[in-house]
Amino acid sequence: MQILTEQLMHDLIIHEVKNKYSKIHKEVHINPGEGKNFEIQGLYPDIIFGGYGQIIQVVEVEMENNLNKERVPYWEKLAGLGIPCTILVAKRNQRMLNDLLWKTGLMGKVKVALFDIIFENL
Questions:
Q1: Is residue 122 in a domain?
Q2: Is 44 helix (H, G, I), strand (E, B) or coil?
Q3: Which candidate among 7, 26, 70, 90 keeps its CA 20 to 30 Å from the CA of 16?
């Protein structure tokens, strides 16, 4: 059940990022879930920002269950594309991600971005 909930949250965040940043970027492509809608050199990052035929950034949304050494080879491939790469995690998981990036030598190769979910006026 937790994995299903995390997948739903993961996909919701991807769609929210697209909605927010499509006002700024000419093109925002997404690959939610197991979707393979937009490919870059055989990889399917969660979010791809671009415009005028150029890709300017890739973003991978990571939930807590994916913050482990098994995920590192994929991040290395994304970082090796020659396109700025960002890993987006929940604010509460920032330290966990930072520790993993330092231990694996990826800290200087990717950017870390944070999201937080706030409920107001319920």
A1: no
A2: coil
A3: 70
Q: How many angstroms separate the CA atoms of 96 and 94, rounded? A: 5
**Chain position carrying tokens 């769609």:** 15
Beta bridge partners of 113: 88
Element (H, E) at 65: none
Domain count, the chain: 1
Mean pLDDT, contiguous 10-residue spans, the chain (122 residues): 77 95 92 91 96 93 95 97 97 96 96 90 76
Q: Is the CB of residue 89 less than 8 Å from the CB of residue 114?
A: yes
Residue 55 lies in a domain: yes
H or E segment and range at residue 89:
strand 85-90
Q: Which domain holds residue 90?
A: 2-115
In a domain, 106, yes or no: yes
User: pTM of this prediction?
Assistant: 0.91
